[in-house]
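Nucleotide-binding domain-containing protein, pasting as requested.
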Amino acid sequence: MPQDGPVEVVILGAGVIGLTVAYTLLTTSPNAYKIKIVARDMPDDLSSQAFASPWAGANWSPMRGSNDRTRVWERATINKMWELTPQGLAMELPSRVFFTTNEDLSQLWYKDLVKDFRVLDPSEVPAGLQGGIAFKTFSINPELYLPWLQSELLARGVEFVRRKVHSLGEAAALAGPNSVLVNATGIGARSLIGVEDADVHPIRGQTIIVHAPGLKEFVSLPLGAGNPGEATYIIPRPSPPGEVLLGGTFQPDNWDTSVDVATAKGILERCAALAPQLKDAETRILRHNVGLRPARKGGPRVEAAWTDVPLKSELLPLPESDGRVNGRVLLVHAYGFGAAGYQNSWGAAQEVADLIASSLKN
Ligand code: FAD
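Structure tokens follow.
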């Protein structure tokens, strides 16, 4: 639907996906969009457990279950992160990842995408595991990265509005007729009236942040190597110096955001077995965290369609809907990224930007 002047865009959600979509729209098509980000949790709400983004590792290391589409996203993201490394936002990270399968690791799809990829010799693989690889990837610190993204957006004129939205109709009313509405609500897509995506579910992740300058590499055991729900991994971060995230848990459908003390002790023991430097005298525990990964059965939902969104529902009459019954918007969904929202972010945001550009032409 072509129109004069910048197209109004409302992005519902200020996690890494909503922010990266906004950044990509503004940098790939300068002056084409006027963007408002509406969200309950803002990028500097770094203690809020109501959204996932503050709690990520966050590094780039593809998981089981990736497909051609997510690989495109991951490829774009790692390339972008190499660009951000010189400014200190991302850090090049030596990595060792172990596997429980006998597959030919020399043919992994990302072997040429990461740096210094090699298959580990069996003598380098812990007992009970089938193989491993070493490579260089990146990590970031969400506590610095999210505020950086927000400051970049503010500098480009993006308006941030703190508001909990109850329904898609309420969001469409905020967006105005014939504008773009991006639904980047993460786990909120499960309960947003009008979306109500029952495939969206949490995967609970408990972690520990430590100061451990002796830990210099990402190390990860495969899911299934330990007890159900355990995920053992170590992610050094670019800054503050010496900060490292220890994981963790991977507990589907567990909504509990409280720290479990026995689980924390288990994480420390498992990580120390993997990296004995954790027992160095200078190690200090800084924080215990729990976050909910916003997963979706069937994978992330990224799609766009012109939609007549009912502005009122029996659950939420909207006095502010100025008499209109429907709000016609280009409705774009971008949620359900589970354990990979950061490493998908730049590629997924580019797909969203392409979908918006092509839909606006039609
Ligand atoms: P969120 O960050 O959840 O943001 C959702 C936004 O929508 C928030 O602003 C929220 O307030 C808003 N919202 C929701 N509902 C409403 C509503 N009704 N009204 C208004 N606003 C609403 N990913 C990686 O790539 N690498 C990693 O190493 C990694 N490690 C992780 C470790 C842990 C322990 C956890 C918990 C996650 C990890 N992740 C990792 C996953 C990553 O954090 C998520 O995939 C990503 O943060 C999802 O971002 P999002 O923007 O989709 O959702």
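Note for the archive: The helical segments are 16-28, 68-84, 142-155, 168-175, 261-274, 341-361.
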